[in-house]
Design brief:
Length: about 450
């Protein structure tokens, strides 16, 4: 029997996915467990394996196309089966089982049509509804007969949530004036977009083009990865009281130690690898920093899962080295290199950028002298690492006298959630990290 393949939902916050590439062409056999297609989620490109055997009968969504999750994207089955019939049956299957009633509100001419008495009750199972349209009808109580009169704009005339939320007149005007309906707030019943809403949005759009003394270069939608990052960090900043602890590290010994290691090791060791290992050791010594606040409970972790923030093609992403406390410095270096390279090209799997217990944000390679990082929820702390700069500092010589000398110095700053980490604990953690980095042999002992 033919099987409809849908756009998968691979993350809790994922609402849509972009088809990157098909590994099979129409007419080719598909075997369970082999790569079937690549999809771009909110943060990375994931290869989806086939869930069953069959022949690829139809491709509905072409590469470089973005669609909502659960949208049909292909059909597999036995050679000769009717793929279109399978698609139609799928649309019918996802429709709600029971009709619910409510009134539409719209512009005057549309209201007259929609409030006219129906000749007969419409069976909702006969309507082509997308999953979001189905949920909208069920949750907000739209009249089925009114929905039946809507001209759908979805797949094969299917009725989408956007079709329900805007009147035909409003949609027509929006198309003519090039106004995206998703950007328009509706003033009708249940938030329905009406003619006056589209006209108001069009006027605002015209005003937003700018003036002679404030010309606009471009407008970038606040959506996708950027919005996800913004929402998460806003929640963190305004929910968790942030407290900051800064210290300076003399990296003289750390630089020499790294040089010695790279002369002996086949795997190149980076400063960031030493930092991960040092932080992991500090978390083992001070486990209450390696914690989260979950449902009114402070959860302390045995695993030190260290995330390192990386700027990739699709925004900021934090690949995580799991159980760093059990790994050698060489293993950390190898794993980190692989994760960072794939993070930059958006090829990480969801499990490779989730499950962290502590994060490191390193902007040293960009020459930043000092900065403050926001905690990556649900973690309780993050360490920001700045650039190494030669500075004049006071040191005690062998004779016990103070003298001024030039040393390579690096600032680190620990940001903690003050709800669960107190100042004393945070100070002890920072000082131990400083000790490990200034006497780097202790990192491996």
């Amino acid at each position: 029997m033919a099987k409809v393949i849908i756009m998968p939902k691979l993350g809790f916050t994922q609402d849509e996915g972009s088809l990157v590439a098909w590994h099979k062409q129409i007419g080719e056999s598909v075997k369970k467990g082999e790569p079937f297609f690549d999809v771009h989620t909110d943060k990375s490109v994931v290869t989806i394996d086939a869930a069953e055997n069959g022949t690829l009968l139809k491709i509905v969504v072409e590469p470089e196309t973005t669609v909502p999750v659960f949208t049909p994207i292909a059909v597999i089955g036995d050679p000769g089966e009717d793929a279109d019939a399978a698609l139609k049956a799928h649309v019918m299957d996802v429709a709600p089982d029971a009709a619910v009633k409510a009134d539409f509100d719209d512009d005057a001419e549309e209201t007259a049509k929609e409030e006219a008495p129906a000749q007969q009750e419409t069976d909702i199972k006969s309507l082509k509804l997308t999953p979001k349209a189905k949920a909208l009808i069920k949750n907000e109580g739209y009249d089925v007969n009114s929905v039946a009169r809507i001209q759908g704009t979805g797949f094969e005339g299917g009725i989408t949530a956007k079709d329900i939320k805007a009147s035909p007149l409003a949609k027509k005007i929006a198309d003519e004036m090039n106004v995206p309906l998703e950007s328009v707030s509706g003033s009708g019943a249940q938030g329905k977009v009406m003619k006056k809403d589209v006209l108001a949005a069009a006027t605002q759009k015209k005003e937003d083009k700018g003036t002679e003394d404030k010309r606009i270069a471009e407008k970038i939608p606040y959506s996708g990865v950027r919005k996800i990052i913004g929402d998460r960090l806003s929640q963190s900043k305004f929910t968790a009281p942030h407290l900051y602890f800064t210290d300076s590290i003399d990296t003289t010994n750390l630089t020499a130690f790294r040089k010695m290691l790279n002369e002996k090791s086949e795997q190149k060791i980076a400063f960031s690898d030493l930092m991960v290992k040092a932080v992991s050791k500090a978390l083992v010594k001070f486990p209450n920093v390696n914690a989260s606040l979950v449902d009114n409970e402070i959860v302390v972790y045995k695993s030190t899962n260290i995330g390192s923030a990386v700027a990739g093609d699709n925004g900021l992403i934090v690949p995580v080295i799991k159980n760093a406390q059990e790994k050698t410095l060489t293993q950390i270096a190898q794993e980190s290199r692989d994760l960072v390279e794939r993070a930059k090209t958006g090829r990480l799997k969801p499990e490779e950028y989730s499950g962290g217990t502590f994060s490191i944000s390193n902007l040293g390679m960009f020459g930043i002298e000092n900065f403050t990082a926001i905690i990556n929820p649900p973690e309780a702390a993050i360490l920001s690492v700045s650039s190494i700069r030669k500075k004049a500092i006071v040191v005690t010589n062998e004779a016990g006298e103070d003298e001024i000398c030039i040393r390579p110095m690096m600032n680190i700053q620990l940001t903690v959630d003050h709800r669960i980490i107190d100042g004393l604990l945070a100070s002890q953690f920072v000082e131990y990290v400083k000790e490990l980095l200034e006497e780097p042999l202790k990192i491996l002992i």
